[in-house]
Amino acid sequence: MKRRSLLLGAAGAALLAACGSDTSDAATPGTVTLGFSAWPGWFPWQVAQEKGLFAKNNVTVELKYFDSYTDSLNALATGNLTCNSQTLNDTLSSVSGGSKQTIVLVNDNSTGNDQIIAGPGITSVAGLKGKKVAAEQGTVDHYLLLLALEKAGLTEKDVTFTPLLTDAAAAAFVAGQVDAVGVFAPFTTTALGRSGSTAIATSKDFPGAIPDTLSFQSQFVQDHPDQVQAVVQTWFDTLAWIAANKTEAVSIMAKKGGVSDADYLTYDAGTTIFTKEQNLEAFAAGADAKHLDFQANKIAEFLVSTKLVDAKPPLDGLFEPKFVKAVP
């Protein structure tokens, strides 16, 4: 769940874990601390920083990159970030745990970069019956696995589910310790390194199921709307800069992701970056996969059914489209 880094997980009101990234310092006055981790839809923030686009919008932003995505979720939930790049799934988990958060921007939808990858001899999801499948419990790739199994007429009870952190799951698959794995880019590249492996289901098969968003502390949104607006404006300015300077932008993002420029380009189709118009459609109420409220209700059912949360998280006030609407 995008979202995504060397570790991925659903966070409620868990205590902040110290793991590789310094999140202990509170933001200095007037500074927005923005967390992100290894997912193609979030690397544009690195471009924004390196090209001075936050400053052009008169907002001071301290980017905090997390090797552990889970730590970024915990940091926002415990007030150690102003905002964080995270999946809708994980925001709902945090809200269920009591964290007050507001989603102000949809960065992207996963359209292929989340994958269920199977080993030699398994060519379909139906072929997973009786097999050992690894994924990080409660994450978007666990969610994708359940969606794929349901489509194939199976349930999680038809496989031996092995909960592992995403990097460990990919490593276990490559080592032949499990028959299939649910992972996100760039760990898809790792998993597909196993001879004879193939992606038997991807997020492309389930349009709109995995939205990646920017979630703020709700109180900050109320107290500092101008700064929130400047961050949202910077996002769209950054997308325009990337479109005009793709080669340089790819180099910046690939370097941050620890992959080659060529490998980074292979992720393009699997992450659909949202335009302003797609954002507005997502924020609007609706009864299909294009709309955040529809997806939030489906994801909430998943979280409750898998006992990751005790009760459906409240959705009132979770989505705030006014900042996207104000972008020229």
UniProtKB/TrEMBL annotation:
Signal peptide: 1-26
UniProt cross-references to InterPro entries, sorted A to Z: ABC_SsuA_sub-bd
Chief localization: periplasm
Alphabetized GO MF terms: ATPase-coupled transmembrane transporter activity
Keyword Signal: yes
GO cellular component assignments: membrane; periplasmic space
Coiled coil: none
Keywords: Signal
Protein location: Periplasm
Family: Belongs to the bacterial solute-binding protein SsuA/TauA family.
Name by which UniProt lists this protein: Sulfonate ABC transporter substrate-binding protein
Taxonomic classification: Bacteria, Bacillati, Actinomycetota, Actinomycetes, Micromonosporales
Gene name, Swiss-Prot/TrEMBL: ssuA
